[in-house]
Design goal:
Length: 409
């Protein structure tokens, strides 16, 4: 699909946000794990939709409504094809990863019984922890947690020991937002399926870094957010195997998700609309389709290699800093370098970096249990996208050295 050779400088030209200065300094954006910047083509798509195509979908007989409906459904097909789903019915538009996980926790969760188990890992984002805790409270199920090593890798032996016929769902992150660990999901999925469990992959950090093929992975659910993959906020995707989604009850009730409504009884629409109650984020969906089309124009293998090189480069330099500790040293990791510095608060480091034009994130990264495991309050996290460069890392490293001198003084 890739039409042009991978070129960071050419790609950077497409992102207006990367050209700006903050505090008079060239912006260095290393907070891609929190949200990515948007290419001009996505901004143009949003503008075009609101300027000329704005109408509600699936309802109007008029021209604009039909235009909007076909653009919305075309976006669904673009995403379906990009992640290798069998049919567009398997692609549900959601508000984002959090919404996708809550949908599964609520709807798939309806079939669970007291004593059933849900398996997650110690490196999950809060949005892949709390919905399962709510479900466990609602249904009397038990949440179990796969432990990790200090390096930030799953304990695979413990995983196998935790699996049993009681395990109904494995819900696990594909790539950790805090550690950068790439989990061996194919192996996990195969083993979970052997005991009859379904598998949900939290793809919030993998869709933008890896070429995803849900058929090859054989996951039952895969969910991600538009805003971390160069698309708009407030939109995301839940992929689910068709027969599974078909067997699940609706998540929310309202317009668009029904076949027929009377006061006595309502029948539901077919997939995917059964799970899309109310007027959706139409512009967001079309914008996400545009972001995914943009990805299709990029050699993702080359992009992933570039991101891995950035990660190794940054980690290699930071490793030599006295008093600095890298958090997350999995053999298979990408695009995230999290660290702490002795006697310095991550927030203070982040603030000093910000004044030098460098955007990083500090804190617990919505993974408080993981911070507890490392017995730290938080980290400084630099997270890369394929538009970042080694030159930016050099500037970041120099700025970090200055910050550490100031804070150490
Ligand atoms: C960002 C993130 C989420 C939550 O995504 P939202 O866009 O806030 O819904 C979940 N899991 C991981 C791994 C994330 O990085």
């Amino acid at each position: 699909m890739a039409s042009v050779p991978f070129s960071v400088s050419a790609i950077r030209e497409l992102f207006p946000a990367l050209r700006q200065k903050v505090y008079g300094k060239q912006l260095i954006y290393f907070d891609n794990g929190a949200t990515s910047q948007k290419p001009q083509v996505v901004l143009d798509t949003l503008q075009q939709y609101y300027a000329l195509e704005n109408a509600n979908i699936h309802r109007g007989v008029h021209y604009l409504s039909q235009q909007a409906t076909s653009a919305y459904e075309a976006a669904r097909r673009t995403i379906q094809q990009y992640i290798g789903a069998k049919a567009p019915e398997e692609i549900i538009f959601t508000k984002g990863t959090t919404d996708g996980i809550n949908l599964v926790a609520y709807s798939f969760g309806e079939r669970l019984k007291p004593g059933d188990e849900i398996l997650i890992s110690a490196m999950e984002h809060h949005s892949n922890i709390v919905p399962w805790q709510l479900l466990c409270e609602r249904k009397g199920c038990t949440l179990r947690v796969i432990p990790i090593s200090k390096k930030g890798e799953l304990d695979l032996q413990a995983f196998e020991e935790l699996l049993s016929e009681r395990t109904k769902l494995l819900a696990i992150t594909h790539i950790s937002n805090t550690l950068g660990t790439i989990n061996p999901v194919k192996e996990l999925i195969e083993k979970a399926h052997k005991v009859g469990a379904k598998v949900l992959l939290d793809g919030a950090q993998s869709i933008q870094h890896l070429q995803i093929d849900v058929k090859d992975l054989n996951c039952d659910f895969y969910t991600f957010s538009g805003h971390k993959v160069f698309g708009p906020t407030g939109i995301g995707i839940l992929y689910g195997k068709e027969e599974l989604l078909d067997s699940m009850p609706p998540y929310q009730g309202g317009g668009d998700m029904i076949a027929k409504v009377t006061f006595e009884r309502t029948t539901y629409n077919t997939l995917p609309l059964k799970f899309e109650a109310g007027t959706p984020h139409i512009a967001g969906a079309i914008g996400l389709g545009s972001a995914i089309s943009f990805l299709q124009s990029i050699d993702m293998q080359a992009a992933a290699a570039h991101e891995l090189e950035l990660t190794k480069y940054a980690q290699g330099i930071l490793d030599t800093f006295e008093g600095l500790h890298i958090i997350g040293e999995a053999k298979n990791k990408t695009s995230v370098v999290s660290f702490t510095v002795d006697h310095m608060h991550p927030f203070d480091i982040g603030t000093l970096l910000d004044k030098q034009g460098i955007a990083v994130r500090t804190g617990h990264h919505c993974t408080q249990p993981l911070m507890d495991f490392y017995q730290i309050p938080g980290t400084v996290r630099a997270s890369f996208a394929f538009y970042n460069t080694k030159e930016e890392i050099d500037i970041f490293v120099a700025a970090l050295e200055r910050s550490m001198q100031i804070l150490g003084a």
